[in-house]
Design brief:
The protein is mainly beta and 207 residues long. 2% of the residues lie in helices and 57% in strands. Strands 12, 13, 14, 15 and 16 form a 5-stranded antiparallel sheet that branches. Strands 4-5-6-7 form a 4-stranded antiparallel sheet, with no helix packed on it. A 4-stranded antiparallel sheet has the order 8-9-10-11, with no helix packed on it. The longest helix is centred in the last third of the chain and has 4 residues. The radius of gyration is 18 Å and the shape is globular. The two termini are 25 Å apart. The mean pLDDT is 91.
């Protein structure tokens, strides 16, 4: 599923689209709001919006043609939810101060994992129940069911000069920055408690 937010003629709208049966995005449904949407995340069954006025709003999209609101989590301190991601009903995000936020879409709030001033958090990625964190000098992996403890038996220190972001898919993780990227296998993280590096790539231009 794809999601696109728009603001036009005073109306804020979030559209759910698919490319499953077409070369071009096909509209499935729309959600109309009275405020801006800052971030959005989608899982197989749920959809989560980070809004300017109404906090986090969760939807059940088991029927993608008729999203149904199921919860609203207030955000009185207007905390930023950067890199918002959703795994089933568990959401994660990152604050402007480099803290990790973990919460349940059906909950009333969230927990915050403090920033590390010695190894700044730069990006996060979520896949298959694991949270991957790119820091200035290292990469860490946490289970969503035990997110306060690292999976890795030893810290992994990357060799990126200017780390910038993460991308994760089935059994693959890419950490990139500037004109470099490090590639990893993730399929054996649980059994080996280690990231298995495939290699490092240098580019002709910034990624």
């Amino acid at each position: 599923l794809l999601n696109v937010s728009s603001h036009k003629a005073g109306i804020d709208k979030v559209s759910l689209l698919t490319t499953r049966d077409s070369a071009y995005p096909v509209l499935l449904s729309e959600i109309v709001l009275d405020c801006r949407v800052r971030n959005a995340a989608v899982s197989e069954r749920y959809f989560l919006l980070d809004t300017e006025k109404h906090g986090l709003i969760g939807y059940d999209i088991s029927n993608v043609y008729a999203p149904r609101q199921i919860n609203r989590i207030i955000n009185p301190d207007n905390v930023a939810h950067n890199c918002l991601a959703l795994s089933d009903q568990i959401f994660v995000s990152m604050t402007n101060q480099g803290e990790v936020i973990v919460g349940n879409l059906f909950g009333a709030g969230w927990q915050t994992f403090g920033a590390d001033s010695q190894d700044q958090l730069l990006d996060i990625a979520l896949y298959n129940g694991y949270l991957y964190m790119l820091r200035e000098f290292s990469i860490d992996v946490r289970r969503l069911t035990d997110w306060e403890n690292t999976v890795l038996s030893q810290p992994y220190y990357h060799s990126l000069v200017s780390p910038d972001g993460l991308s994760v898919s089935a059994q693959r993780l890419v950490a990139f920055g500037g004109r470099q990227a490090e590639l990893f296998l993730t399929g054996r993280v649980a059994s080996s408690n280690a990231l298995e590096r495939i290699g490092k790539v240098r580019m002709n231009q910034d990624i």
